[in-house]
Amino acid sequence: MTAPPAASDTLKLIGNTPLVRLAGASEAAGCDIFGKCEFANPGASVKDRAALWIVRDAEERGTLTAGGTIVEGTAGNTGIGLALVANALGYKTVIVMPETQSREKMDTLRALGAELVLVPAAPFSNPGHFVHTSRRLAEETPGAVWANQFDNTANRKAHIESTAPEIWAQMEGRIDGFTCAAGTGGTIAGVGLGLKAFDENVTIALTDPHGAALYSWYAEGELRSEGSSVAEGIGQGRITANLEGAPIDTQFRISDEEGLHWVERILADEGLCLGLSSGINVAGAVALGRKLIAEGRPAPRVATILCDTGFRYLSSLYNADWLRSKGLPVFPWLA
């Protein structure tokens, strides 16, 4: 086995993550299911890519200059990615996050030196929403830029230019479908656009958690949510700039229970500790594989995103009392 060459700097460690065939999901789908191991990024999530592209774009446009500050509203992972990139480039970070997110994300951001501002969870229409709060803080802070990950299309450009070509190369151009959930929409739109540029016949599917409105948008043309989800960082109630023009061919709605089933199976059977968004993505990939088989595709190959590490959710997803408090099944080894 040949090791990759030494990286010239630490930011070169972002991207070029491994792709792995998931045995249990492949068996369940009846075809090959692959997971892109985004937890292998320095910040342990897919959001490192968006963070790097957003910062580089701000530098190129001249809005972020030496000694500047990056301000962002985030469920946590983008903030962690931005803090790491900022540290490497000599910037400061101010991160606004809903107080409902995992304690591990808060502790990580503080450990990285970011200024953390916690706000009550609120709907997007509320001026106190974490996105609006971060925008106001950026406007009030001298030398600051607002990362604006939801509507800054440097986010999806990261996936057009890096994630999609990596998946295409790792699968040797033999890919029939791709699916993942949407938070900002950058990953699914960017990977979808990137893969379609290689092959228009690749099916791009949205995997939406309960409580989000995009499933009904792509299925019926109406933004309407049903139910709720405890998954962090995914689920969207509007069409962000990153989602505009996303080439979504089909859509699935996945429950937390289905997502947890795959979190449990992948950890118990395959030794990967993942967050709930990854479990929801794998459930969607299984559904897409089955759909492609039903449509007559021979031996389809489907890829999805393994978004972040489960170590970021030890106080929630991997805590029996927390799971019970949410009415969710407890993993057998925690019961």
Automatic annotation (TrEMBL):
The keyword Amino-acid biosynthesis does not apply. Keywords: Pyridoxal phosphate, Transferase. Its EC number is 2.5.1.47. It is an enzyme of class 2 (transferase). Residues 12-308 form the Tryptophan synthase beta chain-like PALP domain. SUPFAM superfamilies: Tryptophan synthase beta subunit-like PLP-dependent enzymes (SSF53686). Its cofactor is pyridoxal 5'-phosphate. GO terms for molecular function: cysteine synthase activity. NCBIfam families: PRK10717.1. This is Cysteine synthase A. It comes from Novosphingobium tardum.
